[in-house]
Amino acid sequence: MKRIVCAVLFLLTVIVTAINIGFFVKDSFFYSLENIPKGTLIREDFDQNVLFSTGYKLKVYQVEKTRRLPAGVRVELCNDFTGENRTIYWQTNTTGTIINWSDESSTIVSINGVTLDFSKHVYDCRDFENHKYEPKNN
Length: 138
Known about the structure:
Blueprint (H helix, E strand, L loop, with lengths): L1 H28 L10 E6 L2 H7 L1 E8 L8 E8 L5 E8 L6 E3 L6 E4 L2 E4 L5 E2 L14
Parallel strand pairs: 4-8
Antiparallel strand pairs: 1-2, 2-3, 3-4, 5-6, 6-7
């Protein structure tokens, strides 16, 4: 009985260690918008028609320089109806944002000249050489 308990504990230790190593490698060598620090809230931006019909608004955050990332602006899409929050925009070496909501669609917004259909696209400046943007699906 003691041998089985020791074997199970050893197996659990190996599994937990392997999972931790996997997360460390993922976070060290691969990036995603979800790994960007939250930052300091600068402002909320919304279009009244969009907010009342779909619940969507944008929160703009200033992110300070970290060991792995330069300073930049992160924009989070928030849905007041569902409580869903997700980062849709990340741009380094900037401190402000100009946001324009589209008149044609409730899911199209322009942030610092980058037009996004936030139901399909995200913008991460690290994905584009010289920050040249071409929409792509997630």
